[in-house]
Write a structure and sequence with these properties.
10 strands; Porin
């Protein structure tokens, strides 16, 4: 994270000088962006956003992406993952509306401080093959399938640099949300071990350690291996985008 922060700081120092020279932005500004944070938070992920000015100081944006659940490796002494890739898919979609604060910004939108609502939805479908070890030492095979979703609705505060009417650096500094987390589990196979031994904090701890989105869902929740659970909680959004403006200057 220190290296990421240093790179961001270096980019800002490099480009701020040229960004400060611009004094006008096209009324219809279209930006395609790549979300750099997604690759640090999720496995084999990528997200692309499109932002368009709708009014002189307002814009809307949509985001779509491919994300994968982190690998689990081990679920404790009684459960070892033998195949992570039985099923490993996921996606995200999102939308937002921005109000660029005219009184706070020296330049025209979309350069400057912005505030506005956002929502995004994550969906993950996974299946893992396991070797389960009973208290007597017997090893049996099973398959753990899980479907996890998260819906976030919140407000964000950020700043976007526009460089030479072409390149953009877009950062969200503050993005609290109300979030709905849901998870469904299914354990199948001829295993000689109680579900309590498997779920007994081993699976929950592995999931919450490696996937923060479900921490609030599973903490103090009673999930079972053939059912589902859901909860409302709070969330937070981090974002760093690098973008390019296309079309006429």
């Amino acid at each position: 994270m220190k290296l990421i922060a240093f790179c961001i700081f270096s980019l800002l120092l490099t480009f701020t000088g040229s960004a400060q020279k611009q004094d006008s932005i096209p009324k219809r500004f279209n930006i395609v962006k790549i979300n750099l944070m997604s690759s640090f938070l999720y496995r084999n992920s990528g997200a692309v956003s499109f932002e368009r000015l709708s009014k002189p100081n307002q814009s809307w944006a949509v985001t779509v992406g491919y994300v994968r659940f982190p690998t689990l490796g081990s679920l404790g002494s009684s459960a070892q993952v033998t195949n992570e890739n039985v099923k490993h898919t996921g996606y995200m979609i999102g939308g937002e509306y921005r109000f660029y604060l005219g009184k706070e910004n020296k330049y025209a939108a979309p350069h400057g401080v912005y505030l506005g609502p956002y929502t995004n939805f994550y969906s993950f479908s996974n299946a893992h093959d396991l070797n389960l070890t009973s208290s007597s030492g017997t090893v049996t095979q099973a398959r753990l399938a899980s479907d996890i979703t998260a819906l976030n609705i919140g407000i964000q505060l950020g700043y976007q640099f526009v460089i030479n009417n072409r390149w953009t650096i877009d950062m969200v500094f503050l993005g609290p949300s109300v979030s709905r987390y849901s998870a469904k589990f299914d354990l199948s196979g001829n295993y000689d071990i109680t579900e309590e031994d498997i779920l007994g904090n081993a699976v929950l701890k592995a999931l919450t350690d490696k996937f923060p989105l479900v921490k609030d869902l599973l903490t103090n929740q009673s999930a079972n291996m053939h059912g589902s659970t859901s909860t409302w909680s709070t969330g937070f959004r981090y974002q760093l985008n690098i973008g390019y403006h296309f079309g006429r200057k």
